[in-house]
Design a protein that fits this description.
2 copies of one chain form a homodimer. The first copy, chain A, contains 9 helices and no strands. Chain A has helices at 7-22, 29-36, 40-46, 50-73, 80-97, 105-112, 118-141, 152-173, 177-201. In chain A, helix 1 (7-22) packs across helix 4 and helix 6 packs antiparallel against helix 7 (118-141).
Chain lengths: 202, 202
DNA sequence: GTCTATAAAAGGATAGAC
DNA sequence: GTCTATCCTTTTATAGAC
């Protein structure tokens, strides 16, 4: 927990980690206090309540998608299609690093929170939309290698689906091979799309 | 709540519904008592604790996959590939019927329970494995229309991934179109696989 | 096997001094 | 803006009568 952080930042960072490790409901305010070494008064001075911390966490993920996720994943990768798989490889590494115990923080929260209030649900949706938007822009860059009538939003969502479904199964079975097989299937999907373009051109 | 049910059965049925509606942590024992019209003493006579109810619920899903899910979905559908999509259509109907508020009960529990004990995790995994097994048998039946080297387990898992990812996004956006686009992408995947077989044969 | 009452702990949140 | 102490509710689980 770095020194230059405000109380608010400390709380958000700790909550990001704890919600990822344990989920929202299983993380108590006391857990956050313990991890930040703050006292109850400071926390409730910075946030009206626990749910407001969740909102701040989801905003942090939303605003951090490029610096925290995309830019590191794309170091040294220029091809737009390979950038998609580089992003997925980043998740693969995170899964493997945690012995398949933890998955996508947004996906987990999205399925844990059944009766989320509109602010929370809107932020979950925004996180997904932004993630899919990143993929869509890659697809647009690679448009010459993809069918002309391709629905880029649909394929972007399908990439997210592949990631989330792979993470879910890898975590449940505690075996990253489930994730790998999903990525391989998606790779085959892209290959078949590309080949259908080649044949049309020939 | 039918008459001929044992206390245990009443509890499992109520818990299945409540865990699906609200999740495990957000369902209190009091919720289950209220829905079953039982008293605390009866519940704790039938089950040592709340987690044992979860185990029984997951066993019920595991044992009920054919009568509760597969057989109704396959009424009047004989083609093995179409049976896969009929199963997915069943989930689509469930999503639409609930205004996209609820998803796959197993998937939600799998992502909600981060530190599940081995009994629970094993049952979640068994539910996934059985579901994928159903798809794998359809793929085996349609083997002549699929590439000879096809990894049926991998494709079965990919079908589950498509379902879970579609449910996750449809629920988060409260819009079944997200699910539909995922199914359309999977359909295209199957079509491309089939066309690659036709070309090889020609 | 079911009833009522209650224990025991955890959880979210607040008060008021500093 | 942070401290300690504490309130109030919810939650899981138990005790003991019937």
């Amino acid at each position: 927990m770095a020194k230059g952080m405000s109380t608010r930042e400390k709380i958000v960072l700790a909550a990001m980690e704890l919600f990822w490790l344990k989920g929202y409901n299983s993380t108590s305010v006391a857990d956050i206090l313990s991890r930040t070494q703050l006292n109850s008064g400071s926390l409730y001075h910075a946030f009206p309540g626990k749910q407001d911390i969740l909102v701040a966490v989801l905003e942090a993920y939303r605003d951090g998608i490029y610096p925290m996720l995309v830019e590191p994943a794309w170091q040294g990768v220029d091809d737009p299609i390979e950038r998609i798989f580089a992003l997925l490889a980043r998740y693969r590494a995170a899964i493997a690093d945690t012995d398949c115990a933890y998955g996508c923080p947004i996906g987990s929260l999205a399925l844990e929170l059944h009766e989320a209030d509109p602010a929370v649900r809107g932020l979950l949706a925004a996180n997904f939309t932004n993630w899919v938007g990143v993929i869509e822009r890659c697809l647009a860059e690679a448009a010459d290698r993809l069918p002309a009538d391709l629905d880029r939003q649909a394929l972007g969502e399908f990439v997210l689906t592949t990631m989330e479904g792979g993470v879910m199964q890898a975590r449940t079975h505690r075996d990253v091979a489930y994730f790998d097989r999903g990525i391989a299937a998606l790779r085959r999907h892209f290959d078949m799309l590309a080949r259908s373009v080649e044949r049309t051109a020939a």
